[in-house]
Every structure is written in C-alpha cells, then in structure tokens.
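Researcher: I'd like a candidate sequence for this fold, 328 residues long. If you have to choose between options at a position, lean toward the conservative one.
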C-alpha cells in the first residue's frame, strides 16, 4: 500500500533564551490575592510584581479544576520582565460566579476579555493551560487587539479520542462525564483530602514524587477550601460540559477552525507524558497557528508551567526576544 507523503511545513522549534532568571524555588508561597473589578467583571486575582517600565503585562488563565495558584512559579520566573495577573475563572479558586453564569467556553472567554480590556494596559502576553488554553484561543481569535503574544500549555483542543488508558485510576474518566460524573465525584470526594490530592498530582504531573511537600500542602488546603464553596461543584460540572460542547461544535465554530485566524506570535508547549490532553495534538496545533512554534518537553505532564517553570520561562522569553528582533 502506498502512502501519501506529509507535505506540510515542519513546525519551527522555539529557541530558549539565555536571559538571566532567578533559580526556581518551588517553596515560595502563592502570590497575594484579592478580589478585583475590571471591565465590569469581578474576579479573584493574584498579582506578580514586575518592572515599572515593562512594555506589557502577562495574564494567566488556569485549566479545569485549577486556579491562579497554578502559575505561582512561572509568574515568579517572569517577574523580572513583566508584571503578572493570574485570574481565578468564575466558579474556580476564590472567584464567586455571577448569577446565571452558564460556564460555556465562550462565556469564560468573554469574562477574561472584559477583564483584560478593563485593565487598560494595552495588549497583554496571554497564557492559557488546558481549558484555559481553549479559552485563550477563543479570546485571541475574537479579540486580537487584546493579545500581544499567546502561550498555550497543553491547550484542550478538540479530541474525541482521549487517551483514558493512560490514567492510573479508571474512575477518573467517568468523573468528567456529564451524567454519571457528579455521582463519581461525590464518591471520590469522600476520600481523605491527601488521597485526592495525590491522585490529582499523579494525573497532572509526569514526576509527582519531585513535587515539594509545600506544594502538596497548598493543594490540600485549596481542596478543603473549595469544599466549603457552594458553587465549586456546579462550576466544575458546568465547565466540563462546556468544554465537551466546544469539542462537538460545528466545523465553522471549532477551535481547529479558529486557530488559523490567530495572527499573534504563539508558543505551544506540551509534555510528552500528558495524560489528559495527548501530545499527539501538539504538531497540528502549532502548524495551524500562522505564527505558532512548538516546544515539546520530555518527562513532563499536563502542567508544564508547574513541573518545568524554568524551561517554560526561557521558551517564553525566547519568543519575546524573537518577536522583538522581527524573526517570529
């Protein structure tokens, strides 16, 4: 049987910057947080200080079940170059959702766009992980004037063949399904918080044993805090369903169709050991983005910004340097 050769152009790799960065210190606590209103939207945000003369601000958007604390280490690495604003999406972290919020991906993207516009800092360096990556794709496609550069870390691009076989606990795929998911999550929630946190870390990290105890303790405290929030479970269930609906959207509204319309410089980062969003989608994602480049990290899972913050920071700075030099 003959095969048709792949004539698509190769994905250009991103250079890693030689810029000075502080040593990665995963023992630092999360950046201070507060509720802020911007563009008529009220969210809980964690701000990272940066140079007063920085040309732009970084905005960080977490994934499904995550929060602004997912960006602690990467934001710290980049704080010598840009100030940062890590947001808790509606219903996640400490952001109480507005009444009637529908948790669709367009609704989340609209909230982030309104918040960013209200900041009044010009186009931003936008970062998105997992579901936050899908939200960032929607935002960049619909509001290009708000985005200076885009960094997508394991973005949740449509995939109707997820690799559930790679998950260590067979119950986890069921927990994300619309009908049976709530019952499965209720059973999982009855387990001790340390067990739940360990399961989550094993799902998201390639090398969970290397996570410092301080980060595990933070995750446990955050899980216990969310248990007291009445909106936490509806937000998780609604956003899961909203993400699935985005995957099933007609071709005209698919993220795969929107990606080629994004003209801003884009860095795509993926871990080879990602159990949630397969690395098989990485080359296609980068190729479809007109100014996309790809960084694939070995021994890395779903949250490269948490597992390899130093390397991701150097890749981001490499992108910014290439853009400034007119080579991206």
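Model: Candidate sequence:
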């Amino acid at each position: 049987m003959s095969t048709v050769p792949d004539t698509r152009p190769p994905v250009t790799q991103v250079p890693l910057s030689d810029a000075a960065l502080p040593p990665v210190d995963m023992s630092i606590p999360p950046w201070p947080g507060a509720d802020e209103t911007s563009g008529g939207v009220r969210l809980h945000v964690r701000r990272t200080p940066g140079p007063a003369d920085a040309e732009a601000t970084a905005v960080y958007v977490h994934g499904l079940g995550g929060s602004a604390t997912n960006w602690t280490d990467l934001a710290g690495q980049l704080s010598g170059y840009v100030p940062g604003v890590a947001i808790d999406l509606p219903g996640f972290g400490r952001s109480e959702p507005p009444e009637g919020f529908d948790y669709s991906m367009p609704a989340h993207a609209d909230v982030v766009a309104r918040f960013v516009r209200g900041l009044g800092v010009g186009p931003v360096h936008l970062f998105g992980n997992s579901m936050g990556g899908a939200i960032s794709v929607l935002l960049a496609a619909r509001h290009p004037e708000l985005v200076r550069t885009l960094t997508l870390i394991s973005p949740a691009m449509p995939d109707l063949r997820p690799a559930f076989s790679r998950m260590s606990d067979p119950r986890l795929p069921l927990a994300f399904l619309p009908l049976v998911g709530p019952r499965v999550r209720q059973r999982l929630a009855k387990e001790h918080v340390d067990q739940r946190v360990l399961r989550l870390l094993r799902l998201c990290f390639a090398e969970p044993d290397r996570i410092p105890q301080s980060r595990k303790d933070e995750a446990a405290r955050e899980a216990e805090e969310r248990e007291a929030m009445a909106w936490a479970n509806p937000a998780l269930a609604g956003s899961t369903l909203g993400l699935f609906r985005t995957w099933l959207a007609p071709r005209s509204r698919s993220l795969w169709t929107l990606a080629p319309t994004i003209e801003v410089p884009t860095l795509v980062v993926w871990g080879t050991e990602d159990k949630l969003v397969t690395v098989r989608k990485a080359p296609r994602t980068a190729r479809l983005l007109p100014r996309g480049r790809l960084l694939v990290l070995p021994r890395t899972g779903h949250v490269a910004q948490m597992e390899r913050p130093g390397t991701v920071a150097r890749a981001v700075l490499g992108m910014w340097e290439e853009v400034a030099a007119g080579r991206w």
